[in-house]
Amino acid sequence: GSPEPSVAPDLAPVPNVVGMQRGAAEAAIRQAGFVASVSYEKCDPDDHACDDRQGVVWSQSPDAGAQRERGSTVTIFANP
């Protein structure tokens, strides 16, 4: 019963797409090796970071720079 050799997952940093148009953000995420999932939600206008132009990405999960396995999903939140 020898242990299986551990295969290191293929990690890549998540790109920062906040402030981009949704289409550009999706392209950047795909280029980085991830799958983009878009959630349309309006950002909180009271939040000083809220950029409420239509189609602008105002949040992402996981955060930019996080190491994630290629092919995993990055969720972006864009204004409808």
Protein architecture, described:
The protein has 80 residues and is α+β, with helices and mostly antiparallel strands. The protein is 12% helix and 29% strand.
Percent range for β-strand residues = 25-35%
Shape annotation: elongated
What about the largest sheet? 3 strands, mixed
* Low-pLDDT residue intervals, each spanning 5 or more residues: none
Number of helices: 1
Strand order of the largest sheet: 2-5-3
Helices and strands, with pairings:
Blueprint: E1 11-13, H1 22-31, E2 35-40, E3 57-61, E4 67-69, E5 73-78
Parallel strand pairs: 2-5
Antiparallel strand pairs: 1-4, 3-5
Characteristic key phrases:
elongated; about 10% helix; about 80 residues; alpha+beta; three-stranded mixed beta sheet; 1 helix
